[in-house]
Amino acid sequence: MRGIEEPKLGEECGVFGMYDLDGNDVASSIYYGLFALQHRGQESCGIAVSRTDGPPRNSNVCKGMGLVNEVFNAENLEKMAGDIGVGHVRYSTAGASVAENTQPLVLNYIKGTLSMAHNGNLVNALELRNELEMNGAIFQTSIDSEVIAYLIARERLKTGKVEEAVKNAMVKLKGAYSLVVASPRKLIGARDPFGFRPLCIGKRDNAYVLSSESCALDTVGAEFIRDVEPGEIVTITQDGIKSDKSLTQAKAAKCIFEYIYFARPDSYIDGISVNSSRITAGRILAQTHPVDADIVVGVPESGNAAAMGYAMESGIPYGIAFVKNSYVGRTFIKPKQSARESSVRVKLNALREVVRGKRVVMIDDSIVRGTTSARIVKMIKDAGASEVHVRISSPPFLYPCYFGTDVPSSDQLIAYNHSVEQICEMIGADSLGYLDIERLSELIDGDKGYCNACFSGNYPVEPPKEDIRGDFEK
């Protein structure tokens, strides 16, 4: 687990799209949808809308660095007239967090305006970009999303329909992508054939919605219809929804870490409750790594449900041991090296009366480098806990992710070079147990179609020969 100086694992973004067939403006609904997806990215955000009954080029775009409520206000939303649009929240690592990389991307070309939001990461981005540049393409950003947008625009010149252009572009893409695309008259959603990243469909009155997670549908009062299937392209027009599943394949590879950490607990992804998945993970930890203790606590937020599962299975009482400061955002200024205050304490603090004199089982979703885990263990012991037994609701991270999760290279992962016993000693815990990789499928009701490459090294798509993730990120 990584805290403020060592940021939590970053999921590359969240996407949201809406088309109101009655012609009502959608910008405010997209705003609330993005607000519900804020956990998927806090670096930048944006909305692009247009009117389907207007000229081909009538897009209205607002985007910038910061949180949704920092970039948007009542005044700029009111100016965004349009019955079709897409929105985006973005996470990035240091170096790629710049204004020109904000999304949605809006292209004005011979067929009109194309607005696109992308969640995921391509493994052949550099190869495609070089090929396009050799044919005269000029790129304005350093993100692979622009490669996708350019491919769609180029393919659109050869096809009669924009959904066919999306399909032709998808054939050339390798890696993870969930796309929401708005053309002058259509809203399109597409998911890569492995289904790495989630995407679902909702409906409110006579308006259709596409979203990374179902929790955003709830926020805007839309009814969940279904998930977009891996490899599927859905096209929303005045005639309703059309589906193209010709690119689907037998083997899916949905990201298991969506269930462990990324997604909001009130979301359902591919028919599975995220909250239930985390409770299951906690139950498994109680079965495989039992310990005599007085209380089970979770590290907010994703550790809470797993802690509840551990308590339910073990019979050890569940407690809340941490107070979280919800107002610490991206603008938090880290204290100087000489400062005695731990930056972790700015975001979390332990409740002394809950842990004093007790043997504590502490549940967290992951350990990356280990520095923050050590600080949290020390925090609980400083608050008076007699023992701290750490349980992790995922297997050890051993390999980097190239599909939209900010898992660093192996040499930066504590589990790659250290045994569980060594890690336990390094973080100051009395014992340490990870989720068994063989039991991961139980988190999603036995479904074997998931990706666990960051734990196993078994990549469903061959990774790039060089690590270009610092250059191509959402």
Descriptive labels:
disordered N terminus, globular, 7-stranded antiparallel sheet, disordered C terminus, 474 residues, 27% helix, Rossmann fold, Glutamine Phosphoribosylpyrophosphate, subunit 1, domain 1
What does this protein structure show overall?
The structure is a single chain. With 474 residues, the protein is α+β, with helices and mostly antiparallel strands. Helices cover 27% and strands 23% of the residues. InterPro entries: GATase_2_dom, Ntn_hydrolases_N, PRTase-like, PRTase_dom, PurF, PurF_N.
Number of strands: 23
How many separate domains? 2
Main pleated sheet:
7 strands, antiparallel
Q: Shape, please?
A: globular
Using only C-alpha atoms, the radius of gyration works out to 22 Å
In CATH, the architecture of the largest domain is 4-Layer Sandwich
Which CATH class of the largest domain applies here?
Answer: Alpha Beta
What class, by secondary structure content? alpha+beta
Outline:
Helices cover 27% and strands 23% of the residues.
Write the layout of secondary structure elements.
Blueprint: E1 13-20, H1 27-36, E2 44-50, E3 60-65, H2 68-71, H3 74-78, E4 84-90, E5 105-109, E6 112-119, H4 125-134, H5 144-156, H6 162-172, E7 178-182, E8 187-191, E9 200-204, E10 207-211, H7 214-219, E11 223-227, E12 233-237, E13 240-244, E14 254-255, H8 257-262, E15 268-269, E16 272-273, H9 274-288, E17 295-298, H10 302-314, E18 322-324, H11 343-347, E19 348-350, H12 352-355, E20 359-364, H13 371-382, E21 387-392, H14 414-417, H15 420-427, E22 431-434, E23 450-451, H16 453-456
Parallel strand pairs: 14-23, 17-20, 20-21, 21-22
Antiparallel strand pairs: 1-4, 1-10, 2-3, 2-4, 5-6, 6-7, 7-8, 8-12, 9-10, 9-11, 12-13, 15-16, 18-19
GO molecular function: 4 iron, 4 sulfur cluster binding; amidophosphoribosyltransferase activity; magnesium ion binding
Function: Catalyzes the formation of phosphoribosylamine from phosphoribosylpyrophosphate (PRPP) and glutamine.
Keywords: 4Fe-4S, Glutamine amidotransferase, Glycosyltransferase, Iron, Iron-sulfur, Magnesium, Metal-binding, Purine biosynthesis, Transferase
